[in-house]
């Protein structure tokens, strides 16, 4: 494949990506990362088309303008990867770095620098921008997937190959005795073609991988409050259920329910109800340790898991949360909303299943609500559960 065919393949490849991206999520608003990547492909497609028509169009278009367009596309490529990594600082660096790269390359043209040096400058600038994208991918190398690591290694190797081609273009413009300049040029453009393919498929596969990870997260996380949902909480609870069969310090469970939550939704709307749920989670987190776990069971009910905490200690934590919620004031529609919670507290027993554990905690919760709400009810301790079966201890 000759150089001109490679350039045409680069132009058509980027153009086809532009078309696919135009229709991808056409009805939905695209993310900034995807938008930047789409513009990058448009700029690169335009640049390669101009380079393909070198000798047909004016030199100003197929030389300086084409290369500046190519630099823009490569810079936006890197920016899209930095945006996908959650680092928005690239936006401040984009214009200065692009302006500096364009100035250096245009200066070579204005000063009529040797063709080999101009080519070297172009290759090195493209490789530099591509390496910037590689650094964005490498930020999470330790916790990255095999796909991400493969892309980092491959893209870094291609960047170095393009940079090496640039250095050789300046040092040995006529090539070696056994390798012609045409072959070296073909290697450089071949590396650029592989860069386009690797970047395109890599970005799309990483986007798909990210989407799958988010879907997997939503299976165990409540979207509103960003705490584990029922399934996620049960998964966190499982190892502590197993540990309860061994001698040692106990683990407690608290079920929390907002009192008269339906009244809040009916009076102020569901948006305000959502704010109340988020505020409740924030209050609970402030009273919990890093090792404690909070999860949403559904509606206005939450569960708290307190590892290595006996029932008496869990009751103290529940009382602190109850008092903090009672003192909480939320502003909505020019009104101040105050809410209270009722809680049922129990400790995991050696013979417990999740059914018996939650049944006992629910029983304590119902007792607190029947006693007038804004209460903490304690399930009977295992040592005297047989004597006082069904009784609870209530505090307020």
Automatic annotation (TrEMBL):
EC code(s) of this entry: 2.7.7.65
Record's keyword terms, sorted: Membrane, Transmembrane, Transmembrane helix
Domain of life: Bacteria
TM stretches of this protein: 6-24, 65-82, 94-113, 119-141, 150-171, 183-206
Gene3D superfamilies: 3.30.70.270
One term under GO cellular component: plasma membrane
Domain (GGDEF) ranges: 249-381
UniProt GO BP: cell adhesion involved in single-species biofilm formation; negative regulation of bacterial-type flagellum-dependent cell motility
Gene Ontology MF term list: diguanylate cyclase activity
Catalytic reactions of this protein: 2 GTP = 3',3'-c-di-GMP + 2 diphosphate
Cross-referenced NCBIfam families: GGDEF (TIGR00254)
PANTHER family: DIGUANYLATE CYCLASE DGCM-RELATED, REGULATORY COMPONENTS OF SENSORY TRANSDUCTION SYSTEM
Name of this chain's protein: diguanylate cyclase
Biological classification of the source: Bacteria, Pseudomonadati, Pseudomonadota, Betaproteobacteria, Burkholderiales
């Amino acid at each position: 494949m000759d150089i001109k065919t490679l350039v045409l393949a680069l132009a058509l490849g980027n153009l086809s990506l532009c078309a696919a991206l135009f229709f991808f999520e056409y009805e939905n608003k695209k993310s900034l990362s995807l938008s930047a990547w789409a513009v990058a492909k448009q700029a690169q497609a335009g640049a390669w088309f101009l380079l393909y028509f070198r000798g047909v169009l004016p030199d100003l278009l197929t030389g300086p303008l084409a290369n500046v367009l190519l630099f823009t596309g490569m810079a936006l490529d890197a920016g899209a990867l930095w945006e996908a990594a959650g680092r928005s600082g690239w936006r401040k660096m984009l214009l200065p770095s692009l302006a500096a790269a364009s100035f250096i390359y245009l200066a070579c043209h204005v000063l009529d620098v040797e063709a080999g040096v101009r080519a070297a400058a172009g290759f090195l600038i493209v490789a530099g921008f591509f390496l910037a994208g590689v650094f964005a991918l490498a930020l999470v190398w330790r916790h990255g997937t095999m796909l991400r690591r493969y892309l980092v290694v491959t893209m870094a190797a291609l960047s170095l190959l393009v940079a090496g081609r640039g250095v050789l273009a300046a040092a040995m413009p006529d090539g070696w005795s056994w390798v012609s300049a045409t072959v070296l040029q073909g290697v450089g453009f071949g590396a650029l073609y592989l860069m386009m393919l690797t970047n395109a498929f890599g970005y799309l596969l990483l986007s798909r991988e990210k989407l799958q990870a988010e879907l997997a997260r939503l299976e165990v996380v409540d979207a509103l409050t960003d705490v584990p949902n029922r399934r996620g909480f049960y998964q966190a609870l499982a190892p502590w259920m197993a540990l309860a069969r061994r001698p040692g310090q106990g683990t407690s469970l608290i079920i929390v329910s907002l009192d008269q939550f339906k009244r809040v939704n009916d009076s102020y709307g569901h948006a305000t109800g959502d704010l109340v749920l988020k505020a409740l989670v924030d209050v609970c987190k402030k009273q919990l340790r890093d090792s404690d776990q909070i999860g949403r069971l559904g509606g206005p009910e939450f569960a708290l898991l307190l590892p290595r905490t006996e029932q008496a200690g869990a009751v103290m934590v529940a009382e602190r949360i109850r008092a903090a919620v009672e003192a909480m004031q939320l502003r909505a529609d020019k009104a101040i909303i105050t809410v209270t919670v009722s809680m049922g507290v129990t400790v995991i027993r050696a013979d417990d299943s999740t059914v018996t554990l939650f049944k006992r905690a629910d029983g304590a919760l119902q007792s607190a609500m029947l006693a007038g709400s804004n209460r903490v009810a304690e399930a009977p301790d295992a040592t005297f559960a047989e004597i006082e079966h069904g009784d609870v201890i209530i505090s307020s």
